[in-house]
Design brief:
This protein is α+β, with helices and mostly antiparallel strands. The protein folds into 2 domains: about 500 residues, Sodium/glucose cotransporter; about 55 residues, no CATH class. It is built from 23 helices and 7 strands. Strands 1-6-3-4 form a 4-stranded antiparallel beta sheet. Strands 5-2-7 form a 3-stranded antiparallel beta sheet. The longest helix has about 55 residues. About 55% of the residues are buried.
């Protein structure tokens, strides 16, 4: 076993063991239904903030941002900026009212606010959909990391994450994973902070520059293209290729003209120092001067794409189920606001690091553009810049942080999805049996545990095909669906008393259907050119306003459906904590 594989295996083993040990602390305290769903609403702001950072800093944050910056340039810095700013929007709009609502899940909030089983059901479907959209790239990222560092098959990384998550969640639910996620945040932070400082020092010591032309190989490197790919060759050059080019078998120096060429399965391209990097066709083949210019990402209609991305992430944060459930774990609304402020500070410090590593990747790992596997930037960079033992050790640290990201985010999402699945299945079963919604505590917990297995198993199966989208892009699609559905529901539900169940339901159906259709076209249908492609790639700019309009118009057309208890509910959402008595919805 190579040093890299050994370091990666040890790192993964340490993170897995640490997660299970930290989770066992919560298991000893998990006795009630409230412990499993919201840790009995007793988590302090600082610990809750660290736990939120642990589950929010996902594969997109740890791997995806650096990869996007390597491929597209400074425009991608909007991702970390908006990931952080989304919490500011959440703080201003919904954090404290959500905590006062007494809900355990988003469907609980919909039921409390609108008294409508139909709206609750639609919310449940959307929570599961968004949760699974978000889980798939976590599991794909785990497979990518383990394969890159140890050579393990793609399916194994996701399976490891599933086994650990199911163990932790089934043992103690939210109470269990809170301890683990707080620890994982600090591991992730250190796993990027130390390499970023060391590698930045190496870069400054060498006095290297990024230059302004097309990226070139820093050293001799052989790149294997696993599948058949079309690549763009920016300038005419001769490269050593073994495999097939444009349908012709080759084994040696090949003169490639500028333009597109087709590489066959398992073709190996050997790049010498100074060779211009061919770029897979789904990524822009841009110069570094364009790469570091605003709106120079190479995507079509970059201004629209950037504005829609900002809208999706800033507004989508409040619609992510694993984010919102954390505010139900605070003792009161005041602590929910304090938690959000601490989260803003932690995220602001963290997101500087992947941006630095992405910029260094443009200089030292540009060959990743040939395969499109730019999510491996932070995994590859340490050994490229520091050959030998120091690079191996830094790579092991990064691997540990990456697996902490996958485990913490997958744990939070699994709890959120499992909570919705178990509650709604239980409510449906009880209605069919003609009895109330009260079940023995043991039966509720057993249902939660079964739902947790389903919550992680389905996205694992969906993650097995080799991904074409980067993890950050895939997560961005989940944000777009969340922004197009739950953002209007929460904003109007918290601040507009005239919202009605028919208006909310039609808005959720329209926004959810359109945003989901755009996601499916993006994932399954391949690239679409021109404005249609831009609108489908970034649907938030048109889907979010449309959902707001549909909900408002639908509510104005059905004024007699305003819940009779709306005054009491609005008072509960906005009154001081002592006046807003809580209930136990499960």
């Amino acid at each position: 076993m190579s040093g890299t594989a050994l370091a990666g295996s040890v790192a993964v083993g340490v993170v897995v063991a640490g997660t299970l040990v930290a989770g066992s602390v919560g298991v000893r305290r998990a006795r009630t239904t409230g412990d499993f769903y919201v840790a009995s609403r007793s988590v302090s702001p600082r610990r809750n903030a660290a736990a939120i950072g642990g589950e929010y800093l996902s594969a997109a944050s740890f791997l995806g941002i650096a990869g996007l910056i390597l491929a597209y340039g400074v425009d991608m810095i909007w991702y970390p900026v908006c990931y952080t700013a989304g919490y500011l929007v959440l703080l201003a709009v919904a954090a404290a009212p959500l905590r006062r609502s007494g809900a355990y899940t988003l469907p609980d909030f919909a039921q409390t606010r609108l008294r409508s089983p139909a709206v609750r059901t639609a919310s449940s479907v959307l929570v599961v959909l968004i949760g699974w959209l978000y889980l798939v790239p976590q599991l794909q990222g785990a497979g990518l990391t383990l394969r890159a560092q140890t050579g393990a098959p793609h399916w194994l990384g996701g399976l490891v994450v599933c086994c650990v998550v199911v163990t932790a969640v089934v043992m103690g639910g939210m109470r269990s994973i809170t301890f683990a996620q707080a620890l994982q945040f600090w591991l992730k932070f250190l796993a990027l902070l130390v390499p970023a400082l060391v590698l930045l020092g190496v870069w400054l010591h060498r006095g290297d520059t990024l230059g302004g032309g097309h990226p070139t190989a820093e050293q001799r490197v052989s790149v294997q293209v696993p599948g058949s790919e079309t690549v763009r060759v920016p300038v005419a050059e001769t490269l050593r290729v073994r495999g097939s080019v444009d349908g012709h078998p080759v084994d040696g120096p090949v003169a490639l003209t500028a333009g597109e060429h087709r590489l066959g399965v398992d073709t190996t391209v050997t790049l010498a120092r100074g060779d211009v990097i061919p770029v897979v066709s789904r990524l822009p083949a841009q110069t570094t001067a364009s790469w570091r210019a605003p709106l120079g990402s190479g995507v079509e209609h970059p201004l629209y794409a950037t504005l829609s991305l900002i809208l999706a992430i800033c507004l989508g944060t409040m619609g992510l189920p694993h984010v919102l459930v954390r505010f139900y774990t605070n003792p009161d609304g005041r602590d929910a606001r304090r938690t959000t402020l601490v989260v803003l500070a932690l995220l602001s410090a963290f997101y500087v690091l992947p941006a630095v590593l992405g910029a260094l990747g443009r200089r030292y790992t540009p060959d990743l553009l040939l395969t499109g596997n730019t999510d491996a930037t932070v995994l590859t960079l340490p050994e490229r810049m520091l050959p030998g033992t120091p690079g191996v050790l830094l790579g092991g640290l990064v691997t540990a942080g990456a697996f902490a990201a996958f485990l913490s985010t997958a744990s939070g999402l699994s709890v959120s999805v499992a909570g919705v699945l178990s509650q709604d299945v239980r409510h449906l079963r009880n209605r069919l049996r003609g009895r109330g919604t009260t079940d023995p505590r043991a039966e509720r917990i057993r249902g939660f545990r079964v739902a947790a297995v389903v919550a992680i198993a389905v996205p694992y199966l969906a993650s097995l095909p080799n991904p074409q989208l980067g993890v950050a892009t895939a997560v961005g699609l989940a944000f777009a669906v969340a922004a197009s559905t739950f953002c209007p529901l929460l904003v109007l539900g918290v601040w507009w008393r005239r919202l009605t169940p028919p208006g909310a339901l039609v808005g959720l159906v329209v926004g959810g259907s359109l945003a989901t259709a755009a996601v499916l076209v993006q994932v399954l249908g391949g690239a679409v050119d021109g404005w249609p492609g831009a609108l489908l790639d970034q649907p938030a700019a048109w889907a979010v306003p449309l959902t707001f309009v549909v909900m408002v118009v639908g509510s104005l057309l059905t004024p007699h459906h305003v819940p009779v208890s709306v005054r009491a509910i609005m008072l509960r959402l906005h009154a001081p904590e002592l006046l807003a008595a809580e209930r136990d919805p499960v």
